[in-house]
Design goal:
By secondary structure, this protein is an alpha/beta fold. Helix content is about 35%, strand content about 25%. It contains 4 helices and 9 strands.
Length: about 200
Amino acid sequence: MQAQAIFQKLESQFGADVVRDFHEAKGGDKDAWFEVAPPRVADVGRFLRDEPELHCEYLECVTGVDWPKDNRIAVVYHVYSLRHRHRIVMKALCDRGAPTLPSVVDVWSVANWQERECYDLLGVVFEGHPDLRRLLMPEDWEGHPLRKDYVEKEHYHGIPTVRPNPVELFGIKAAANAAAAAASAAATAAAGKDKEPEAAKA
């Protein structure tokens, strides 16, 4: 089934207030996508999975994008049907101040860790998640690192979080090697001059 037909079936089932704003896969959009009303994410996901014509049993990934200028965080769901070999993407646009969505773990169990990652790095709360806690950062870490206004603190429990730039380190090492080579060459030249008078006497 083509993406447009998938969207039309969803629109017929849920109405334009729940699924809307369809975009074909063109330009900057690699996959066709549509917007879903945040409170209905799990309902739409369950229909995508259970409707025989759709049968999108595979949730490829859950990702998030921070749009601070629009005061939104977009949570993006890529779903695929192994049976029908079709794909669709749905995006839920959340209020950046308090991004909240229903969990889809009951629909696709693989969402468990993916929602935890989105919560950890962007601060999206997935209501109904069986174990919503940080996945990558420590539990007492402050802030969400993938937010575009995130500023990392200089220390975490006394451990510095500032890391040297490897490119700069490479430049420093190269300069040090060049200086050492120049010093070695100068020393060799000086040693040679010291031996010149003895060679002349011989």
